[in-house]
Amino acid sequence: MKAFTQAIITIDGYVWGTPLIVAILGVGLLLTVRLGFLQFRRLGKALKYMTHNEVGGEGEVSSFAALTTALAATVGTGNIVGVATAIVAGGPGALFWMEIAALFGMATKYAEGLLAVKYRVMDDNGHAIGGPFYYIENGLGKKWIPLAKAFALFAAIAAAFGPGTITQVNRITQAINNVFDPKASNIAFSIGENQYTWTTAICAVVITTLVALILIGGIQRIASVASFLVPSMMVIYVVTVTAMIIYNINAVPAAFVTIFKSAFGIKAVGGGALGAMMAAMQKGVARGIFSNESGLGSAPIAAAAAQTREPARQGLVSMTGTFLDTIVICTMTGLSIVLTGSYNVGLDGADVTIRAFGKALPWSQQFGAVVLMTCLTIFAFTTILGWNYYGERSMEYLTGGSQKSVMIYRYVSVSYTHLTLPTSELV
Description:
single chain; mainly alpha; two-stranded antiparallel ribbon; 19 helices; 4 strands; globular; disordered C terminus
């Protein structure tokens, strides 16, 4: 088992290493130039389209609902825990490179949204289905179908058994346990040497029930829930962090200087400068892509369901997802961590952000933890919903539209959500 774990770590280090940084930033830069720096020139129009739905277009949900469904999947633990992890591992400069990747990633997300609508199909049930598997098949040609099938297969696996479920439920239970049972003293049951708290057991029941009730309603119910929860929680989170920044406004200039110096390894001595810069770049780009998913091909699956006749319009709406996710949410999280110095006190993960929330405003550490727990729980919960939708559409493509297969996949996903909660939160 140790050998397998080490192999995964090695592969992960290579995948998220220099080759991926060059590929992600390279494609984003290429699209930025070819599109005439569209993400800068048309950002205002994109934000306008985000809230003004097109009338009369084909599709199942409004452009705003499609965007919030995609945001439901992207705005999750990466915005809170992932940012903290990147800054601890790569230094404050990781935040700078996260934003650079996002700026170029906006062009990539535009292209993904445009292609999703351009090459989507309408099935016999009136469902608008699209995403990378359809624009690979219909855009590149039939000989590329194996690649499209491979993407759909990996997307379905990732949605049910990967970051769409495991990462999110882990963070939910960790956050709630940190508030209600930080010492893990209320044990519900044991399996072998592992003990599980009542908090974890209750989470398993509540999260599974809510996920099942929402998923049964399909894209309309998912979009309806996402359209309410995602904007509401984003506003609450932004207002809270803005208050934190204003309260510590005197520390903000120094925080920006620290971020910039760290991004280019200016504080490092001699040859260590390049190493420090590469570490910041690697962690920033990797966490940025994990957070906003630009270039991963997930968000176009939701974009394809938008009621629109103009692929370019939906492309603009889609790119606002990266702007809101990384340029706004991740930047605010990272700035709060840096200005409170929470990244260099020996903590990691959610504990870093919890400390920042506890220190940045004149309230108790416990109250700050409750606020962060609420935000993180809702962000992670909506991510589960969004990724389950991605998985179902991927399974639908793999099985030629078989609704029976989709239903089986749905039940398996919901059951795995239940199983993951108690088995992943070890105390």
